[in-house]
Amino acid sequence: MTIENDDHRVITTVYESHFSCDFHQHDFAHFIYVHQGCHILYTDEQSILTTPGNLIYVPSQTPHRAEVLTHSRLSLLCTTAQPPSESDKINLFTVSPIVAQLFQLWEYDQPKECLEKHYIQVLVDQTLQCTPSSAALVAQGSLDRRLLSVIDTLSNQPNIKISISDLAATTGASVRTLNRLFLTYFDASFKDIRNKVVMDRAEQLMNQGMTATDIAYELQYSSLSAFSSAFKEHKKKTNLNPVLQR
């Protein structure tokens, strides 16, 4: 596919579980919005885990490949425009509610042809205002295969009560081994990874208009106050102001 100067396109693609592709690169930059599913973007040095609600920036001429862990639906905003905070590396970007809502227009369909060009321009303008996030789950090198089924389950059924002991039996690895692998690859414990995936899901649901009460129930928090405290702490770490609609 070729993108001319000042041209932008949105393409929504569905990938089945276990799809993978070889290293490749594009002549244009693109933002990937994850509607559903979980996949890993590989560079020659790193593995970047993406979950629903994430927005990933891939600069032009950047070699990368993808491995899809679960049935996934992604929208790609292909553009020659560059964000003010452009990085020469693949990176996770923050997602504003309006960007999430605009991408949802292409999740299962697309806007009317007479309006699509206008929606795309608004999407480009809003997406370029997004900034790199400090909350990316980045691993050094290729991930150990034993972690993939754990990450798969976390992405499909994110909830705060799921424990590593619940998942260890399906991997053939002990709890101790899995924790060591998470620390080795992500410099974070299973609990840290679980909390990040749960908060990503909370943000996605919030951007879709779900109330904090319903999100707390969906993610199996013991109470609304427990969820609210966790969400506010998450926002502090990502330098964003929490806005909860109860």
UniProtKB/TrEMBL annotation:
UniProt cross-references to SMART domains, sorted A to Z: HTH_ARAC
Keywords for the protein's UniProt record, in alphabetical order: Transcription, Transcription regulation
All copies of domain HTH araC/xylS-type, residue ranges: 145-234
GO MF, one example: DNA-binding transcription factor activity
InterPro entries: Cupin_2, Homeodomain-like_sf, HTH_AraC, RmlC-like_jellyroll, RmlC_Cupin_sf
Gene3D superfamilies assigned to the protein according to its UniProt record, in alphabetical order: Homeodomain-like, Jelly Rolls
Keyword check for Chloroplast: no
Pfam families per record: Cupin_2 (PF07883), HTH_18 (PF12833)
Statement: the UniProt record of this protein carries the keyword Transcription: yes
Domain of life (superkingdom): Bacteria
Entry protein name: HTH araC/xylS-type domain-containing protein
Organism from which the protein derives: Vibrio azureus NBRC 104587
